[in-house]
Amino acid sequence: MDSRDLPPGQGRSGTAASPECLPGSGWTRALRDLRAVRRRPAQIAAAVVGAQMAGVILANEAPGVMAITWAGPLNIGLTLVLAQLAFTGWAVLWYVRYARRCVEPVVERHSASFPHLESHR
To answer: Residues 6 or more apart from 106 whose CB is under 8 A from it?
Structure first.
């Protein structure tokens, strides 16, 4: 039985829930906004994981190609690992900036919608 099947004002256990814990229009908008700011980081994370997987697959399926030397002691495999390291570092720095500029203002704006989730530090 889902909580949507319960009568209004009833929590999961069948007891009356406090009004501030019931989903309302504030929750809907807050969750929609939070999902919207979460989309871009998810795309960046997928690109980072995809690049890592591509490197692993290349190393497994084409070890001869990865061993080709092109600049002194650098071979293609080492170059790809260094590029992945730079890409991952860029993604981390990008997310720190993105979180400060885009995520934190949305969280601050909607923090009143979720009083039961506030930490008391």
So the answer is: 33, 34, 37
Element at 71 (helix H, strand E): strand 69-71
Q: What are the tens digits of pLDDT across the range 41-74? A: 999 999 999 999 999 999 999 999 999 998 888 9
Q: 74 - beta bridge partners?
A: 71
Q: Distance of CA 18 to CAs 9, 36, 106, 112, 114, Å? A: 8, 28, 25, 15, 13
In the chain, what is the straight-line distance between the N-terminal and C-terminal CA atoms, in Å?
Answer: 36
- Helix 76-98 to helix 25-61 angle (10° resolution) is 170
Pair of tokens at residue 117: 């989730």
Residue reference for tokens 């949507």: 4
User: Using CA atoms, how far apart are residues 50 and 95, in angstroms rounded to an integer?
Assistant: 17
Which structure tokens are listed for 79? 């170059």
